[in-house]
Q: What sequence folds into this?
């Protein structure tokens, strides 16, 4: 499962807003465009779902720009993703079991439901403030250091390319 470009860039944009809003009261979209390398027009399109979800507020006028709808500490990453893709779901039948005649007895749906719930738990366990706090980022990297792909420099240099997932207590031996 891959998230849309809009969701990925929207999250990146919100992280940059949170970082810049630690220094300024209002941030112009042009500044975020320079930081991210994305066009201001494209970023303007990305603001719409976030404004609709109350996560971003547009401020009109000559000195206008954007500010967060709430504090960075209270905005969960899951809320940002949900603004773009809706509820996180590994398969359509998770959110809409009526789409499949087999949903009530399908063992595969069970796994998709668990995977969807775990993804949502991960997204909801981090806030926008976590993503702009260098100490918190280092703690997260340490906590998840067992995942080789957490360190992009190692992946790029070819030192670590495996995907490894933690073994759950529910896994059979």
A:
């Amino acid at each position: 499962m891959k998230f849309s470009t809009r969701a990925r860039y929207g999250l990146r944009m919100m992280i940059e807003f949170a970082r810049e809003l630690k220094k300024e009261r209002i941030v112009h979209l042009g500044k975020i465009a320079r930081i991210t390398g994305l066009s201001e027009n494209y970023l303007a399109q990305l603001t719409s779902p976030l404004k609709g979800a109350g996560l971003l507020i547009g401020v009109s006028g000559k000195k206008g720009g954007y500010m967060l709808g709430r504090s960075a500490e209270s905005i969960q990453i899951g809320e940002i993703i949900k603004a773009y893709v809706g509820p996180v779901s590994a398969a359509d039948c998770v959110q809409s079991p009526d789409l499949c005649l087999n949903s009530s007895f399908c063992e595969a749906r069970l796994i998709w439901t668990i995977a969807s719930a775990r993804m949502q738990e991960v997204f909801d366990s981090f806030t926008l403030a976590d993503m702009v706090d260098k100490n918190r980022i280092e703690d997260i990297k340490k906590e998840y250091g067992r995942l080789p792909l957490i360190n992009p420099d190692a992946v790029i240099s070819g030192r670590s390319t495996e995907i490894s997932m933690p073994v759950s207590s529910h896994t059979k031996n």
Observations:
- Confidence is low (pLDDT under 50) at residues 163-173.
